[in-house]
Amino acid sequence: MKLKYPIAIEPGDDATASAFGVVVPDLPGCFSAGDTLDEAVENSKEALSLWIETVLDDNGTLPAPGLLSLHTKNPEFTD
Length: 79
Hints:
- The protein is of the alpha+beta class.
- It has one domain: 2-Layer Sandwich (Double Stranded RNA Binding Domain).
- 32% of the residues lie in helices and 14% in strands.
- Strands 1-2-3 form a 3-stranded antiparallel sheet, covered by helices on one side.
- A hairpin with a 7-residue loop joins strand 2 and strand 3.
């Protein structure tokens, strides 16, 4: 079974070399970043994998992915 977790991206700025931040709302403490949008998305895949691996190694359970439509209504992730 393949789980797909939505990510929230905080816009960076290529002109000022500000990184793009990435948060996985359904996985507390799971975050990443990248100098470009593509890099941020790619780095989030590694962060997700490591977060999941750590939880499973500790015999924890994975939360179900939330619906993207619900996350977009969360004021923390608007814009």
